[in-house]
Write a structure and sequence with these properties.
2 domains; five-stranded parallel beta sheet; Helicase, Ruva Protein, domain 3; Rossmann fold; single chain; 13 strands; two-stranded parallel sheet
């Protein structure tokens, strides 16, 4: 399994320069069975990251370019009348694929954003009253620009809560950017990425992730962390039970990525830092004091006793 993960990481690094930790976090989210939200300013490689993952896997892939006039049926599909059969026939939309890239998700209206709620939670989409399951494994990768940029609609809390992890891509360091410039001039930056893993490989690894042991004391540690987000005066809306389950599964995936069959406290802390911040809503006073959600989670981790 470790060799397969290393092969996947190396394959993605051929396309994405200077982001090994980010690539590892994306693969961890995939193995944890979660959805991923990539957020940052335009041009830093959000879409390239998603496509590098999709191209490295022998899975069906679809890209939805979200715009203000994108409709829910553009995502889920619709029912159309077939004159030959004299009956309506269901035409599934791009969301009925294994890897779905919702590019610039926050540029489309909240009504259209909500079209993803059912499929992200239940792994099925309902068209004209007919439930249609999506292929497994299934992962939605959303990209978005910062909310303060023009033409964006903030994602609702119900949508954010369905993303297991939100990652910021960030600018590359000077050495990586120099390597990127060299590859670009040599014509190797946008080279084709061959698939290195099949659906059965991902399914097998996800099964192994679910077998990773979390000791009772660590489970209680997770519960205390999540509970602390609901009692802090700086937080108006804390983490949900869904967030707790995401934290546990991501911690299992971290242990699996580190070749362990059991979790350690460091896995829980890293999983909390990945899965909780984007789910929290800070009070107006906390926002005025320039406190960030990431800082709030770090504060909670420093206050909750480690078993």
């Amino acid at each position: 399994m470790n060799e397969k993960i290393k092969t996947l990481e190396q394959n993605m690094q051929q396309r994405i320069v200077g982001k090994p930790d980010l690539i590892a976090a994306i693969i961890t989210t995939l193995l944890a069975g979660g959805h991923l939200l990539l957020e940052d300013v335009p041009g830093v490689g959000k879409t390239s990251l998603a496509k590098a993952l999709a191209d490295s896997l022998s899975l069906s892939f679809a890209r939805i370019q979200c715009t203000p006039d994108t409709t829910p049926s553009d995502i889920t599909g619709l029912s159309v009348y077939n004159p030959a059969d004299r009956a309506f026939q269901v035409v599934p939309g791009p969301v009925v694929n294994s890897i779905v890239l919702a590019d610039e998700l926050n540029r489309t209206s909240p009504r259209t954003q909500s079209a993803l709620l059912e499929v992200m939670e239940e792994h099925r989409v309902t068209i004209d009253g007919k439930p249609i399951p999506v292929p497994e494994p299934f992962m939605v990768i959303g990209t978005q620009n910062p909310a303060e940029m023009a033409g964006t609609y903030p994602l609702p809390e119900s949508q954010l809560d369905r993303f297991m992890v939100r990652l910021s891509v960030g600018y590359p360091d000077p050495e990586a950017e120099e390597d990127m410039a060299r590859r670009f001039l040599e014509g190797r930056l946008h080279s084709e990425t061959r698939p290195v893993l099949a659906a059965r490989d991902i399914a097998q690894m996800k099964d192994e992730v679910r077998k990773v042991t979390i000791h009772e004391s660590l489970r209680s540690y997770c519960v205390k962390i999540v509970e602390s987000t609901r009692t802090k005066p700086e937080i108006s809306c804390g983490a949900s039970p869904r967030a707790l389950l995401a934290l546990l599964r991501y911690a299992q995936a971290l242990a699996f990525m580190d070749s362990r069959t059991y979790c350690i406290p460091e896995d829980i802390a890293e999983a909390a830092a990945r899965t909780l911040p984007h789910r929290l809503i800070l009070t107006a006073g906390a926002r005025l004091s320039r406190m960030t959600k990431e800082e709030m989670v770090r504060t909670i981790l420093s206050q909750v006793k480690v078993p």
